[in-house]
Recover the amino acids of this structure.
């Protein structure tokens, strides 16, 4: 915001690393139990349990302590999405819930193992990170009903929609040349933003210089070809397979169309998942962290991964 051009990709993540150090530093300036509200003694908090933060880094300067004590969650859940190699390293260091967008179980397994392995290298418990893969369901009461819906939905996306979404994600004008005209290496290197999309297209197309049509085809941006189409059994089977095979810890349900897609999923798939014991019937915690099964982080716990990252 307010800049004429993006920072270089990896430099943005360097800045994000420091930003997390500042934010977590502020959130941890109050120890648990710092608030006593002792009206008789006229003491609101225990001074020894409240600390200053004097951060001076490459990108940020920030003073503390924070204006409010730690939340019931310790600190808010850190949710991250980044598909590039540098983005995954950032996820492994800081993320507690990580969005993934693998289109196959095998690709999901590879990404899952890469992030969990990097987290372990940084001294984090991989089981305290939830990786949630994208799921784009077209659900019906039966497979035949779902296939009929998909036949209609597949006619809706337009090339211009996909190109607009790609331009938004990569900060690049995809209408700058013909749809089948290959981009130059210089143009590809000039794409910014979510460059994991660019890298996916390069990898999946096998082309060093893909064209705009290749980006539409292989990015999946604005497309529904990768949708999971079926009745309750077919969709639940696919979800269970990906979950049991350790390709993800959960899912981010994405709509092929609105309104309707989420309502169909809730009406047809959720009851089947509940019947199999794969989805809860009610929330058991009072915070998002509890309902995700994530532990409450002790003050300063994040510093271990900071030291390991160097």
């Amino acid at each position: 915001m307010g800049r004429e051009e993006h920072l270089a990709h990896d430099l943005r993540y360097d800045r994000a690393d420091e930003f997390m150090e500042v934010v977590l530093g502020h959130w941890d300036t109050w120890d648990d139990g710092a608030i006593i509200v002792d009206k008789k003694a006229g003491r609101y908090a225990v001074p020894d349990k409240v600390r200053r933060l004097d951060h001076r880094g490459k990108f940020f300067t920030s003073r503390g302590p924070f204006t409010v004590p730690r939340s019931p969650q310790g600190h808010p859940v850190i949710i991250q999405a980044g598909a590039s190699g540098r983005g995954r390293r950032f996820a492994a260091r800081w993320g507690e819930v990580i969005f993934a967008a693998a289109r196959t179980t095998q690709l999901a397994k590879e990404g899952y193992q890469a992030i969990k392995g990097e987290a372990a290298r940084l001294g984090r418990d991989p089981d305290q990170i939830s990786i949630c893969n994208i799921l784009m369901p077209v659900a019906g009461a039966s497979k035949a009903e779902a296939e009929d819906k998909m036949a209609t939905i597949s006619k809706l996306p337009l090339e211009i929609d996909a190109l607009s979404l790609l331009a938004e994600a990569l900060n690049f004008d995809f209408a700058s040349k013909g749809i089948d005209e290959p981009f130059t290496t210089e143009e590809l290197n000039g794409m910014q933003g979510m460059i994991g999309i660019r890298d996916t297209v390069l990898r999946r197309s096998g082309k060093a210089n893909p064209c705009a049509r290749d980006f539409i085809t292989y990015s999946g941006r604005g497309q529904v070809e990768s949708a999971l189409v079926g009745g309750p059994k077919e969709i639940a089977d696919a979800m269970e397979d990906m979950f049991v095979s350790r390709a993800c810890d959960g899912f981010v349900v994405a709509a092929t169309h609105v309104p309707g897609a989420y309502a169909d999923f809730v009406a047809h798939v959720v009851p089947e998942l509940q019947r199999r014991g794969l989805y809860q019937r009610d929330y058991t915690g009072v915070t998002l962290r509890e309902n995700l099964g994530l532990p409450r982080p002790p003050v300063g716990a994040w510093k271990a991964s900071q030291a390991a990252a160097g």
